[in-house]
Amino acid sequence: MNRPAGPGGRVCGPPVPAPAHPPRAANVSPVTPLLDLRGIDKSFGPVQVLHDVDFTARPGEVTALVGDNGAGKTTLVKCIGGVHQPDAGEYRFEGTPVRLGSPRDAAGLGIEVVHQDLALCENLDIVENMFLGRERSNGLALDEAAMEEQAARTLAALSVRTMGSVRRRVSDLSGGQRQTVAIARAVLWDSRVVVLDEPAAALGVAQTQQVLELVRRLADKGLAVVLISHNMNDVFAVSDQIAALYLGRMAAQVRTADVTHRQVVELITSGRSGDLGLRA
Ligand SMILES: Nc1ncnc2c1ncn2[C@@H]1O[C@H](COP(=O)(O)OP(=O)(O)O)[C@@H](O)[C@H]1O
Ligand SMILES: [Mg+2]
Q1: Residue ranges in the chain whose pLDDT is less than 70
Q2: What are the Gly residues biased-composition ranges (predicted)?
């Protein structure tokens, strides 16, 4: 598959020396993280948005990223996706320190972010949207047949049966179908990590259910999925881990099975819940 390669192959940029960093409390899990961010700081001018943030995502798991408006979720996701560069901290991919200079570098590692606005083109069809900017050519002409076939195969592999023709225009699709196209576009490229920023925010109940099932299938295929969501029912329905940001700090990252709705709401609203979370 012709995924865009980052400069120098798999790892983008020279490995950075590991900064001295105090050992953190172990987040006990049998699987090694694919993404492992530690001590991430990010400021915009004088405003520090992320403070010493740790975050991990493991293959085969859905990691929900939660937090109130302005907590820093999108900023963290943009650091993960190479849109922003952290000011400090360590970013490891499969245990190797990396420095991502752009979303293209992230894509080179198999990290894809589905942003909240989806960035689909209304006037183009499903195939054209899925290959936008990464079209396959056949000599001089675009290889329409190959792209159509691959788009249909990708949707089928995701068990998506509700789309109809892959030549439908995006302007004719429902919100849930658009979300599905954006997700399918993200997994078309041998992705290893898919980050979804509020995929169900604008969807009704049935469409939300379909998107959540799709999210679960991505993890079951072995991807590391990061799901930003405000909806506690969605988070508990689909996630294996929950990472709660509070005012730009990671209050806690916990296994979903180990916490209650109420504890997560407390982490979101006050940064702590009993023994969990930030110290005063
Ligand atoms: N490019 C930017 N320049 C300045 N401030 C920003 C920028 N991006 C985000 N912020 C600020 O960072 C904080 C966190 O924003 P964001 O990451 O979007 O939070 P969330 O996604 O959790 O709602 C907000 O106060 C926001 O105003
Ligand atoms: Mg946001």
Answers
A1: 1-30
A2: 1-11
pLDDT of residue 30: 62
Identify the residue whose C-alpha is closest to ligand 1 atom 17.
72
Ligand 1: which atom is nearest the Cα of residue 77? 17
The secondary structure of the chain, three-state, reads CCCCCCCCCCCCCCCCCCCCCCCCCCCCCCCCCCEEEEEEEEEECCEEEEEEEEEEECCCCEEEEECCCCCCHHHHHHHHCCCCCCCEEEEEECCEECCCCCHHHHHHHCEEEECCCCCCCCCCEHHHHHCCCCCCEECCEECHHHHHHHHHHHHHHCCCCCCCCCCCEHHHCCHHHHHHHHHHHHHCCCCCEEEEECCCCCCCHHHHHHHHHHHHHHHHCCCEEEEECCCHHHHHHHCCEEEEEECCEEEEEEEHHHCCHHHHHHHHHHCEECCEECCC
- Domains detected in the chain: 31-110+190-279 (3.40.50.300), 120-189 (no CATH)
Decide: 69 in ligand 1 pocket, CB within 6 A: yes
pLDDT at residue number 29: 55
Per-residue pLDDT at 18: 44
